[in-house]
Amino acid sequence: MSALEEEYRLDYFEEEGFERKECPSCGAHFWTRDHDRETCGEPPCAEYEFVGDPGFDEPHSLEEMREAYLSFFEDHGHERIDPYPVAAERWREDMMLTIASIADFQPLVTSGETPPPANPLTISQPCIRMQDIDNVGKTGRHTMAFEMMAHHAFNAREDVEGEYAYEGEVYWKDRTVELCDELLESMGADITEVTYIEDPWVGGGNAGPAIEVIYKGLELATLVFMCMERDPEGEYELKDGNRYSFMDTYVVDTGYGLERWTWMSQGTPTVYEAVYPEMIAFLRENAGIDHTEEEVDLVNRAARLSGNLDIDDVDDVEAARGEIAAELGIDVAELRELVEPLEAIYAIADHCRTLAYMFGDGIVPSNVETGYLARMVLRRTKRLCDTVGVDAPLDELVDMQAERLGYENRDTIRDVVRSEVEKYRETLERGGRRVEAIAEEYAERGEPIPTEELLELYDSHGIQPDMVAEIAGEVGAEVDRPDDFYSLVAARHDTPEEAEAVEGSGDDRFDDLPETETLYYDDQQRTQFEAVVLDVFEREEGYDVVLDQTMFYPEGGGQPADHGTLSTDDATVEVRDVQREDGVVLHRTDGDLGKGEFVKGQIDVTRRRRLMRHHTATHIVIHAAREVLGEHIRQAGAQKGIDSSRIDVRHYDRISRAEVKEIEGVANEIVMDNTSVSQEWPHRNEAEAEHGFDLYQGGIPPGTNIRLIHVAEDVQACGGTHVARTGDVGAIKIRSTERVQDGVERLTFAAGDAAISATQEVEDALYEAAEILDVSPQEVPETADRFFEEWKARGKEIDDLREQLAAARAGGGGGGEEVAVGEATAVIQRIDADMDELQATANAVAEDGTIAVIGSARDGAQFVVAAPEGTGVDAGEVVSELAARVGGGGGGPPDFAQGGGPDGEALEEALADAPDVLRRVLNA
RNA sequence: GGGCCCAUAGCUCAGUGGUAGAGUGCCUCCUUUGCAAGGAGGAUGCCCUGGGUUCGAAUCCCAGUGGGUCCA
């Protein structure tokens, strides 16, 4: 059947007397030493045989098993490699979290562009997979965080030499299976019980044969032989429907689940008890879960049964629970009551480990990317704790795992957790109030809370429908929750498909040109050079000049391009922009110097110096920020400039004014220390081994060798130009901080003369303010405060006086014309005052049942009409008639209306007509 | 990176273009008293900032700032 069937006919299987069989139950092909065996041995074709009956000689703890594995492979010629961070986004852009050990070596090593850190190598790589999050705790075997133990060998075909970063074959399929057998045997496994199931692997554009290793019902390892790549012309069509062909490189990619091996060695009911027994014990005690012997027995039997059920999503779990309950002869509800608290506790332990990995590796909770995943996991964990009654603070629980995992930044981890839990608490509180108000409203009307409202609550306020239902229940409101709730949420986010921005590269004009030799790293202080014009291309505006070598820095790494001039003996052209395409540097000029000309290049020194100061300052500021705010500080983006630069850093809180000052202090100390700024070009593996992934603050550069910039103790991979000594930066001034998104703070700063200008700007503003207030700058805050207070007090006083004035006017008949309108009296009066005063006067007049028509010629013409109840006059209508006469409009409630228009001259006439208008309105 | 929501009294929030509100807290007085409480009166506001539309904007539009939230 399998297109790769031939690939599994290993000499090793032959020599060891394996037989290839087809599982009668699931149809899978597998290899076994046991000629009597029938099924493949993997659930659902088998059950967990090791629960209560460990499959290895000795019980191992997680740490012991990891060490046993790594040293086994060390003894068999592999070099042990330190694990990579779980935040895969730090060295690759196509993946947020590390989901497998091979992720560490993609894409550069697997493609053969970069040599592996060792070959062959062995590693135990912490991984996080969010896909199974709902199953964690329930199935007994799913975990979100796990360590994938692995050995990898990177091979290249013998017939291709020099093209790839590694050569020849280390070992391939036979040896890989043999090593697996030997490892199992060394653990005391009965290898006649092991089955090797054929299961071709496809993923991420690569593919190859793969083997699942099953022992006593548990999949212990997957051996992947990555050797094909997607190729429309390829001769093999694999299970994803695409065609593949063989590559020149072929990679042994194994994955041994540390947790499962540990579990196998202990035979506990679930993997969780084997992996973090102390934490499970702590949580059980904390939640007050105490089972009788009989109950313990039931739980264990249920656990064992869960093995032979194919559980892939939550619906299945619920169905499976029914089957298990039937098998055990108890009620489903009873079973659920028994195991659900345990499931919650297992999940809490696992989630806390996930959080410890995430925060330990510097992920900061946020509304974007990995930060968002971390936030979701944390909130979920907090909910689980609340449901099951675990009252230990979450930061303590995460810390238990962080300690076990050996993280050194545990204080920061706890800070992050505490701050995030607090944010969640606030969200819940806000949400709770909101839901209560809405629920009461609908309860009163006797309607269910509509789906639209639920969507809004979830999408904009983060309130789960469950929570709405719960609160609504308390006030007696129903909730209209459709089954496809989450797809409705998704529909809300559907935006019209954006036209794919086609990268209009397709520019092959430069294909024949050699890569431009770049001089700007050789001596970063030089600003003049000589070169030959290789070619000139006309552009819409100006020209692209290509030279054989250049000192002009092309835009890149957040550093803008150099400006300057190119000149021959007779002509000079301005360079206004410099770009780089496929290694060819294009100088955008305003003139054509002619192909083959010999030119002198001169860089705009002032501009370049400023850029260099800002670039070095960027390194200094991020280093200082890390010192002040914590080890988790990482660059999330940067842009250098002439007058100021900015860096975005990941941080879980706003940066306070005090912290800004401290960062500024540390940064300027580094400047004053005047240490040298140096560059080097080490092999990337050496650089990574020595400095870790913190090197890549500004992105991951390609190539085998990378350029490192040392500024004081700070080391970063960087392609920019830098000053020679930190003192050359002059001074660093942080101008502002800004929260660019949740978990990302932007620091804007200026260096050198720009720092001085920035300071002067702020000073100018302060001095100007001081001058206006006629006080010294130091007294500005106090004076401003006093003025503001006085200003407010005067506003109140004016209001008071206005009312008094209005009362006096109304009482004293102050010049208003009195007319009779039906039963009532109306006062028509002109006072050229502002709206507030007109209103106050009208109010005062209306106080004793008199109709008031007040007009003003300030700002055109304005009217206020008050018509107390019982006068039979609609103030709104009166105003709109009057306002029409001054070219405007107006309106308001029947007892009090305002209006006006631009024609102030017509005011008198309008007021003169007012009695008529009043009477007409009365009669209407 | 994208979407959505929010910003009004110390706090929590109403307020659909026409005189800025409620609850709570605060102050004063009264009643009662072991505490809690009850009654009456009072003070609170650049309605986030800046533009625009309008006779008129807390309200509508645009931009900014600050916060929240969902998704990849």
Automatic annotation (TrEMBL):
Its main location: cytoplasm. One of its GO terms (biological process) is alanyl-tRNA aminoacylation. It is found in: Cytoplasm. Residues 887-903 have a biased composition (Gly residues). Residues 887-906 are annotated as: Disordered. Zn(2+) binds at residues 615, 619, 718, 722. Binds 1 zinc ion per subunit. Consists of three domains; the N-terminal catalytic domain, the editing domain and the C-terminal C-Ala domain. The editing domain removes incorrectly charged amino acids, while the C-Ala domain, along with tRNA(Ala), serves as a bridge to cooperatively bring together the editing and aminoacylation centers thus stimulating deacylation of misacylated tRNAs. HAMAP family: Ala_tRNA_synth_A (MF_00036_A). This is Alanine--tRNA ligase. The lineage of its organism: Archaea, Methanobacteriati, Methanobacteriota, Stenosarchaea group, Halobacteria. The gene is alaS.
